[in-house]
Amino acid sequence: xxxxxxxxxxxxxxxxxxxxxxxxxxxxxxxxxxxxxxxxxxxxxxxxxxxxxxxxxxxxxxxxxxxxxxxxxxxxxxxxxxxxxxxxxxxxxxxxxxxxxxxxxxxxxxxxxxxxxxxxxxxxxxxxxxxxxxxxxxxxxxxxxxxxxxxxxxxxxxxxxxxxxxxxxxxxxxxxxxx
Length: 179
Description:
179 residues; mainly alpha; elongated
């Protein structure tokens, strides 16, 4: 009769995470629980669980990445960008965050920010041909147009982007890579 129980439609791992979350709603288990929801297409539940979990763990970057992934799946690119700016400020080598941010910025038309994130991805994964192609294409477009496609950014976000670019330049200099 297990097939008739309402919870039997969920993967066992999701049920395990759910029980752990119910036992301790302030724990960080909300992030893998949200990922489990997201992977079976329950995006709204993933967002809700992340928001609840982040209210108890506001500095948990893994939870913010899980929330951004759910936002991305719903094509909520503004929210992805807002969520991940804090993550990449603190953990610039988080490749998932960089990729989601880059892709979302590109969709939103923030080409400068997208290019910075793609370059950071390329730095940490130099053999990624897809990212290398994106960087080359965006730089070519910028060169051909005499600048980037969209430059009207909020000063606060632009400062964060400039810090990220300075960090990338410093990291490249330390590794002896020409910029």
